[in-house]
UniProtKB/TrEMBL annotation:
It comes from Brachypeplus habecki. Residues 70-332 form the G-protein coupled receptors family 1 profile domain. Signal peptide: none annotated. It is found in: Membrane. Residues 356-379 are annotated as: Disordered. This is Long wavelength sensitive opsin. Its main location: membrane. GO terms for cellular component: membrane. One of its GO terms (molecular function) is photoreceptor activity.
């Protein structure tokens, strides 16, 4: 079977006790109570090779273990380390919690479905599965945007910024959850619906229905959960990098006036702060794009013309989006120097590098470098 393009019914003619090939389709194993949710578009595709189901089940299982372990560790360390209980870090904890819940609810059901090669949990759990995926994905994305806005206030606005308190952090988190819940329950009330994905082993939004009322949900939801937070993240990091670069230039100019090589003792041995920051920002946005863009493309291909979607494509794109729950503990947790110190104390065997910050004037709270002592005090 080809991954993209029109289905190739001769792609494989595997055999089993029931016999594959002939007029069988990917829908044939769907249980009777789920048939009404399957779009007629999928009836043109032959059954997927069982090997693909095995690979997909293995992959989601591995990602589930990594995500649950990694995010669980982040939650434990941030909750048990007093020095990490800051307003800014509440956003990191919320991100870890959302990603933890994502894989806790996504991994096991899909492993079971891949074993049976179809959705076996019924229509209700199909809707709940898809809703949880949308909910935790939305919360994670908007939490990353909140982290970017927090760092923007600290680094760009500096002392003129309104202090970010625990009350402010909790308010931001509450707003993110309330808005996300509002969006993901809409399909239960008739604005779009949750249906099986192309390989019938997972569920998501219906992007094949051609009615514009249903299509409008995908478009509006994409604006809210993809384009708007992406714009916020890029906007914030652009001015953060710009501010840090200006700060570094002013320090070099001051050092030149004082006729010294540098105002920082270890500057010659380390990468400049703006380069570090640019790399972290680039990695954050690149991973975000890598995870969510394929799934967005699939949804938009569906509502604007589904001729290039195959069952295998849909599930791989969905898997990439879920994999973002594995990246975030690394980007937002391990890049935090105080987190690494706590990790070394509690789990020394997991630390592969020196956890002590080499430059006291710079820290990477929440994946972003703070460049002044005044800014460190507010983090």
């Amino acid at each position: 079977m080809s991954v993209m393009g029109q289905p190739s019914f001769a792609a494989w003619g595997g055999s089993s006790s029931g016999g594959f090939g002939g007029n069988l389709t990917v829908v044939d194993k769907v249980t009777p109570d789920m048939i009404h949710l399957v779009d007629s578009y999928w009836y043109q595709f032959p059954p997927m090779n069982p090997l693909w189901h095995a690979i997909l089940g293995f992959m989601i299982g591995v990602l589930g273990v990594i995500s649950i372990t990694g995010n669980g560790m982040v939650l434990y360390i941030f909750a048990s380390t007093k020095s990490l209980k800051t307003p800014s870090n509440l956003l990191v904890v919320n991100l870890a919690f959302s990603d933890f819940c994502m894989m806790s609810t996504m991994a096991f059901p899909m492993v079971v479905n891949c074993y049976y090669e179809t959705w076996v949990w019924g229509p209700l759990f199909c809707g709940l599965y898809a809703m949880f995926g949308s909910l935790f994905g939305s919360v994670s994305i908007w939490t990353m945007a909140c982290i970017a806005m927090d760092r923007y206030n600290v680094i760009v606005k500096g002392l003129s910024a309104k202090p970010f308190t625990k009350k402010s952090a909790m308010m931001w988190i509450l707003i993110v959850w309330v808005l996300s819940i509002g969006w993901v329950i809409a399909p239960f009330f008739g604005w779009n619906r949750y249906v099986p994905e192309g390989n019938m082993a997972a569920c998501g939004t219906d992007y094949l229905t051609k009615e514009w009322f249903s299509r409008s949900y995908i478009v509006v939801y994409a604006i809210f959960v993809y384009f708007l937070p992406l714009f916020v993240i890029i906007y914030c990091y652009f001015f953060i990098v710009q501010a840090v670069a200006a700060h570094e230039k002013s320090m070099r100019d001051q050092a030149k006036k004082m006729n010294v090589a540098s105002l920082r003792s270890s500057e010659a041995q380390q990468t400049s702060a703006e380069c570090k920051l640019a790399k972290i920002a680039l990695m954050t946005i690149a991973l975000w794009f890598f995870a969510w863009t394929p799934y967005l493309v699939i949804n938009f291909s569906g509502i604007f013309g589904s001729s290039k979607i195959s069952p295998l494509t849909t599930i791989w794109c969905s898997l990439f989006a879920k994999a973002n729950a594995c990246y975030n503990p690394i980007v937002y947790g391990i890049s935090h120097p105080k987190y690494r110190q706590a990790l070394e104390k509690k789990f020394p065997s997991l630390v592969c590098a020196d956890s002590t910050p080499k430059d006291d004037t710079a820290s990477t709270a929440s994946g972003v470098t703070n460049v002044t002592e005044g800014e460190k005090a507010t983090a």
